[in-house]
Specification:
heterodimer, A: about 80 residues, alpha+beta, Mth169, Chain: A, three-stranded antiparallel β-sheet, 2 helices, about 35% helix, B: about 230 residues, alpha/beta, Rossmann fold, two-stranded antiparallel ribbon, about 25% strand
Chain lengths: ~80, ~230
């Protein structure tokens, strides 16, 4: 079995109102040194296969088709074999 | 002529659209369950507002893969009339029938109120009964209506006359302060390049009867009837 950890983030050119609000909240807690906050999504999934190459190809398709919207989001993933 | 209103799990403006078409417009209308794939008998299909699939992942992202969507995309590519309202607009964007995406409202609030929008293109199947620059009072109710498209895409929209509605003041000022959600250049509704698919965030089905405080949205539906009858 392969476990994948997928990270989806907004592209740099896209404003992130959620990130801006979180930054303000952190500042109000006293953390004045924060330069920027960007909020994204984290998805974990398990795939019934041991073929790393196929898993990577499928994950890339899944991200492009459904999990991320390539117009505004970037994605990346890491995989490892698990029992 | 016959309208169809698609019902996804989580749609909640389907009955309002159905009601307006049947009892106000007095046209034939049927519900289309999202698993149906027969769209041959329809002249116009409405994707209603709501929270299809709980807005999981991104608004419209999962509804976009419902079985009805493949025939709906073919329907649109044939030049037939499709209108997506609110969540319906978000689904059209995810399906790629209209360019761009929705971000969260810039104030992070769900906004539910009457707004004013300006009719910028009256040469479409959806707006042919309005006057150019006519100001309409129509309610919005959404959390992700902050329309975004890159500069190149925006220039294309403008050059092709695809921007149909912009948020404005009661007298038609389209300054940023009259933009409720932060959408690029106050965009409230746009059409695809061939102008047979409209996506809009405001709810015309909630402003089609005097009892509800505004009749300004009714002519969107009446324009569709007029356009289809004359084509």
């Amino acid at each position: 079995m392969i476990e994948a950890k997928i990270c989806i983030t907004l592209k740099k050119t896209v404003t992130d109102p959620q990130g801006i609000t979180v930054k303000h909240a952190l500042e109000s807690l006293g953390y004045k040194e924060i330069e920027e906050v960007r909020v994204g999504k984290f998805i974990e999934l398990k795939i019934n296969t041991n073929k790393r190459k196929t898993a990577r190809r499928h994950l890339d398709e899944m991200c492009k088709k459904l999990l991320a919207n390539p117009v505004i989001e970037n994605y990346g993933f890491a995989i490892k074999e698990v029992k | 002529m016959k309208f169809g209103v698609v019902v996804f799990p989580g749609s909640n403006c389907d009955q309002d659209c159905f009601y307006v078409v049947k009892y106000v417009l007095k046209q034939q209308v049927r519900y289309i369950w999202h698993k149906d794939t027969q769209l041959n008998n329809y002249d116009c299909i409405i994707l209603p507002g709501g929270f299809s699939y709980g807005d999981y992942l991104r608004t419209g992202a999962i509804a976009r893969f419902s079985p009805v969507m493949k025939p709906l995309i073919d329907f649109a590519h044939k030049g037939k009339i499709v209108i997506g309202i609110c969540n319906g607009f978000q689904i059209l964007l995810e399906a790629g029938l209209i360019p761009g995406v929705m971000l969260r409202n810039n104030n992070l609030h769900f906004i539910c109120k009457d707004v004013y929008i300006k009719t910028e293109n009256t040469d479409t199947p959806f707006t042919n009964l309005y006057k150019h620059d006519q100001i309409l009072k129509i309610p919005i109710a959404h959390n992700e209506g902050n329309y975004y498209i890159d500069n190149k895409g925006f220039n294309n929209l403008e050059a092709n006359g695809q921007i149909v509605f912009r948020y404005c003041s009661i007298v038609g000022d389209t300054a940023g302060e009259f933009n409720p959600n932060g959408s690029i250049q106050n965009i409230a509704g746009i059409v695809n390049k061939s102008k047979n698919v409209l996506g809009m965030m405001p709810h015309p089905e909630r402003s089609s009867e005097k009892l509800l405080g505004s009749l300004d949205g009714l002519n969107i539906f009446s324009s569709i009837v007029r356009w289809i009858k004359s084509h």
